[in-house]
Design brief:
The protein is α+β, with helices and mostly antiparallel strands and about 525 residues long. Helices cover about 50% and strands about 20% of the residues. The protein has 3 domains: about 250 residues, Beta-Lactamase (2-Layer Sandwich); about 50 residues; about 150 residues, Alpha-Beta Plaits, CATH 3.30.70.270.
């Protein structure tokens, strides 16, 4: 290869002193930022983790205590019956009046009991019935529970209180010796109350405590010493810290394990605080840097300042114009996305997040407009309150996600039979409401609208491959015949709906004073 000798060009500095100064300040800025963030993480992060761990343990202990408090309350309730003279006499002579007055379905339903049994002094059942709280019917009392108490008779004064496994269901058990109110006479037998510790019961406890949990029944490892402690162990997940504990079962070698989940809000708060700390330090350093070298960064700083001024104006103005989208770079992209976010927030503010129907806020606005229009044109308008019959059992049986899908399907059907001039909205839960402008046309008569609603909701729904049947109860009120104020119309429709509920459901009724 032929090389030709060339003359070297004159030396030209690739950087200036100013640029070297900039590089030095940038290095100091980075060092200050890293030291600040690192020290904050080193000194504060472990404390936040410890606080979160303590909070999770407290939540688990609250769940643990609440469950045992329910058992204690049941035991106190049984003690009232066990020391009652009428109970004492009933076990001796099987008084029918006692049975008619106390051993009824109402007694078990009101006290959430799934069974009551009386055992005589000879260990023979005097009266024993189980009760299905879902179907409201008496069934055979569990033999294993009778045998358990019979094997321990005569019971000690403190009786027996604990948790038992009946089939696949964990149940609270309380048994006490039956004595008279003086407690002088010898016991004449034993009384047994059982109350299911089912998901519905536990959900009420968790809702009261504002906790999330899950359960499982398992055979414990004998080598696992944590089972002897109230709180067994913990597990850290990305979005929750889980503490579990076990409840021993009186009639089984298995345990009922509870996993109590505590959201990692403290960790999220700590991370946010660290980020804000880092951001504050970084912004402060950059502002100092920009103040010293404004001339060098004018082309970058100026548009950012202009954009920030526009965003501040947007935050301070109630009725502000959208950000200007006159740039094609990243600043224009930010303005565009902020405008889109503002539109999305406005939409979410007036629509139900689950079904996409208008929410109560938009419903009130459209009701006002409909009544004004009806007043102006001399027409009638109706408010129809819709409540889904049978939704709660479906939701309790199949879960909330299944119930949500059913609500979405019901909303879709209601939307499909609604005219453009009318409005259907969801107020919450399984309650919907419709605004209808009435006229003499085929689709504008109240009877026709109500029949269409009932027909649409009576047809079976197919949810996750399962056929689900529900009905609806409708209450109606008329403008201006019955009321002129929107709140009165909604109230009357609501009361009419409850009248339908009491009369047998699956129908509609106009408000009657």
């Amino acid at each position: 290869m032929d090389y030709q000798q060339t003359e070297k060009p004159d030396f030209k500095p690739s950087t200036s002193i100013k640029m070297r100064t900039v590089a030095l300040l940038v290095s100091l800025l980075a060092a200050t930022f890293l030291i600040s963030v690192g020290s904050a993480y080193y000194f504060f992060w472990p404390n936040f983790q410890q606080i979160e761990q303590t909070s999770a343990e407290q939540n688990a202990f609250r769940m643990h205590s609440s469950i045992y408090r329910e058992l204690e309350n049941l035991h106190v309730f049984v003690a009232d019956w066990a020391n009652w003279d009428d109970t004492y006499q009933f076990v001796k002579d099987t008084n029918l009046d006692y049975m008619r007055s106390n051993l009824t379905a109402t007694t078990l339903i009101d006290n959430s009991l799934s069974g009551i049994a009386f055992i005589g002094a000879q260990k023979q059942p005097v009266w024993a019935q189980n009760f299905d709280l879902l179907r409201h019917r008496f069934t055979r009392f569990p033999e294993e529970i009778l045998h358990l108490i019979q094997s321990r008779m005569p019971l000690a004064d403190e009786g027996l209180a604990g948790f038992v496994l009946i089939g696949d269901t964990v149940t609270m058990l309380s048994a006490l010796p039956i004595t008279d109110s003086t407690r002088i006479a010898p016991p004449v037998g034993a009384i047994i109350f059982i109350r299911p510790l089912d998901i519905g019961f536990l959900d009420k406890i968790a809702e009261r405590l504002k906790l999330h949990y899950r359960t499982e029944t398992l055979v414990p490892d004998p080598a696992d010493r944590t089972l002897t402690h109230p709180l067994g162990g913990d597990q850290i997940q990305p979005d929750a810290r889980v503490i579990w504990f076990d409840i021993p079962l009186v009639n089984s070698d298995r345990v009922y394990r509870f996993h109590v989940e505590t959201s990692r809000e403290i960790t999220d708060t700590a991370m946010t605080a660290l980020i804000w700390n880092a951001t504050t330090v970084l912004v402060a350093s950059i502002l100092i840097f920009l103040a010293m070298y404004l001339a060098l960064d004018r082309q970058i700083a100026k548009p950012l300042i202009q954009l920030s001024q526009q965003i501040v104006s947007m935050g301070r103005s109630i009725d502000c114009d959208p950000l200007a989208e006159n740039r094609t770079d990243e600043i224009g992209l930010i303005a565009h996305e902020v405008n889109r976010m503002q539109d999305r927030i406005l939409s979410l503010a007036v629509h139900d997040y689950l079904t996409g129907l208008p929410n109560r806020r938009l419903f009130d606005d459209r009701l006002d407009h409909t009544l004004d229009r009806a007043e102006r044109l001399g027409k009638q308008a109706a408010v129809i309150f819709i409540d889904l019959d049978g939704f709660k059992p479906v939701n309790d049986t199949h879960g909330h996600q299944f119930g949500d899908e059913l609500l979405i399907a019901a909303a879709k059907r209601l939307r499909g039979i609604t005219r453009k001039s009318d409005t259907v909205a969801r107020l919450g839960g399984d309650e919907f409401v419709m605004i209808v402008e009435l006229d003499d046309e085929e689709g504008g008569r109240l009877e026709t609208v109500c029949d269409k609603i009932l027909a649409a909701l009576t047809d079976p729904f197919l949810i996750r491959g399962q056929e689900v049947r529900i009905t609806a109860s409708l209450g109606c009120s008329l403008f201006p015949d019955q009321a002129r104020e929107p709140t009165d119309l909604v109230r009357m429709a609501d009361e009419a709906m409850y009248g339908v509920k009491h009369e047998g459901k699956a129908s509609w009724r106009l408000y009657r004073a």
